[in-house]
Structure formats: C-alpha cells, structure tokens
Amino acid sequence: MSDGSDEELELTSPLVPLFVITNGRGLPSDHQYEHTTLVMAHDSGSSAAARALSPEARKVMDLIADGFLSVAEVSGHTHLPLGIVRILLAQLEEDGLILVRKPIPRVERAERELLSAVLDGLRTKFGA
C-alpha cells in the first residue's frame, strides 16, 4: 500500500499515544521541573545513553545544546505538552545528559519603609 515515497511516521502524531514517547514513565514531582527551571545539554553527548535517545528526546537535546532554556520554552519549541517534556527531562537528567538549574526562590517582599529610606539616601547623595 506504499506509494513509493519514504515518508516516516512521526512519533508525535495522533496515532501514537503520548505514553509511548515517555516509555510509560510517570510525571516527576511538581517542584522538580517548574516552568522556569533552566535546562542545558551536558557535554557527554557521545555516551551510550545519548545514542539511544528517542526522536523527541534527541530534539530536546538539540534544542538545549547551545545554552540554558526554561522548561516552558522547551515545551513551546518542541510542541510537546509540558508534562511530556518534564518526563523527558527527568529521564535525560537521570542519564546524566543535561544540567538542571532550579529557579531562584522568590524573595520576601521588602518593607516599604526600607525602600523609601534607600531611595531618599540615593536622592540625597546624587541630588535627584
């Protein structure tokens, strides 16, 4: 039934369930890969684990090879759901193929009086 063309079936097509892409792995905990967590490919791209990557994982690795991207950016560029990207990143981190930089925690709100005092001091010093 082939028409002679060598078209490959894309694994992310609607014919392939998403759990096939993740090999049935479950989601990592919510705090592990937040939207703003940064990921970058590690230099060990020639390892056996790197050679055995799925097409989706390879696409993620190619995307983050040049520098840090957030988990949300990886999801947007790959057109994969955020949950699937988080699972792929967890697998890549376990294999030692990526570096993960956790988001910086939010600082507590600074007191308004303290900020006003700093601003007044700057105005006094620099005459604004």
Q: Which characteristics define this entry?
A:
3-stranded antiparallel sheet; single chain; 128 residues; 3 strands; elongated; 41% helix; mainly alpha
Can you give a write-up of this model?
By secondary structure, the chain is mainly alpha-helical. Helix content is 41%, strand content 8%. It has 6 helices and 3 strands, in the order αβααβααβα. α4 (71-78) packs across α5 (82-94).
Topology:
Blueprint: H1 18-21, E1 38-41, H2 48-51, H3 55-63, E2 69-70, H4 71-78, H5 82-94, E3 98-101, H6 112-126
Antiparallel strand pairs: 1-2, 1-3
Helix pairs in contact: 4-5
Low-pLDDT runs of 5+ residues are: 4-12
Distance between the termini: 79 Å
CA radius of gyration is: 22 Å
* Tally of individual helices: 6
| Percentage of residues in helical conformation | 40-55%
Sheet with most strands: strand arrangement: 2-1-3
How would you sum up the major sheet?
3 strands, antiparallel
Shape: elongated
Structural class: mainly alpha
Give the DSSP E fraction (strand runs of 2 or more residues): 5-15%
H/E element order: HEHHEHHEH
Number of strands: 3
Report the average pLDDT across residues. 79
In short:
This protein has 128 residues and is mostly helical. Helix content is 41%, strand content 8%.
